[in-house]
Amino acid sequence: MRVFLRVFPLFLSLLLSAGVARADELHLENGDRLTGRILSESPERVVLETEALGKVSVLRDHLKRVVRVSPPPAADSAGEKPKDPEAKVRERLAWTQREWKGQAALGADLSRGNTDKTSLSGRFGLGGKTGADEWTAKAEAAFGESDDATDVQRADGSLRYAFSFWERLAWYNFYTVQGMHDRFANVNWRLSPVAGVGYWWSDEPPLKWMGEIGAGIERTEFRGGTPRRTAATLMTRGWVEADLWGDAKLTQELTLWPRFGDGQSGEFRLKSETKFSDPIWERLKINLRLIDEYDSEPAGDAKRNDLRLISDLSWDF
Q1: What residue ranges define each of the domains in the chain, with the CATH number in brackets?
Q2: Could you tell me which residues come within 8 angstroms of residue 57 by beta carbon, excluding any fewer than 6 positions away?
Q3: What is the pLDDT of residues 153-200, one digit of tens each?
Q4: On the CB side of 250, how many CA atoms lie within 13 Å of its CA?
Q5: Which end of the chain has fewer surrounding CB within 10 Å, N or C?
Q6: Above 70 in pLDDT, residue 77?
Q7: CA atoms within 13 A on the CB side of 267
Q8: Start-end of H helices in 19-119
């Protein structure tokens, strides 16, 4: 936990500063990038004021991505007002064809805590969404051995469904089931179904952030003779993603699972994950993740804190 208290403020300060004092950006199809202040937008073009070139008008056909930091203009060059939030909601509700995307990654996992080894790490994710709902499945595993003996064996996964509703579809219900196994933390298996509600304060670049809370059950079977444990939990989660340079992103996620039950009041699990991601070629990305997991009451002789630094390459499909 002391490691977390030292490392987390540093990464959080980097994250919060990422969206400050940045200019609007136009990313062109040829790989060039223009920075300045967006003066106007229309369906055909974007007008940007830059320090070096002055006012520049770029056709939408030549744009790959627009990153806006400044407030949107009251009207574009043709006198048309920007699309109101209700129009955006109508567009999302009209999007009924589910779109599927996935990612697979392979890399190295440097662990400190219940295991002090570097191991092979892999993960896989698949998501399908419409304008109002989304299915997400994730799985990750790490394995390592030395002298013909296993010294790293960890796996976790989740299945999640979320449905947006109400004001600008910023509110959503979610239903998730999470599972994990960690041999050297003395966890044979843990299953945690949770249902709750969340809210998107911002779901557009350059800074996305949301929070959610849900109630559920945590059931754990331990290794080494520790009795099976079942507890009620009230999961709280916060997530922030900031655009950096180009298509690079910095993400911070913090999740707390307090436990309630006979003799378990005051016990909790805490997980912090900080992730840096940067595309290096089309769908290929390089990722660096710092994961800190803390359990106030681990089983047997397991340590409370597990710290992992994971470097991997991922492929989007």
Answers
A1: 22-82 (2.30.30.100), 94-316 (2.40.128.130)
A2: 45, 46, 47, 48
A3: 899 999 999 999 876 788 999 999 999 999 888 999 999 999 999 999
A4: 13
A5: C
A6: no
A7: 18
A8: 85-94
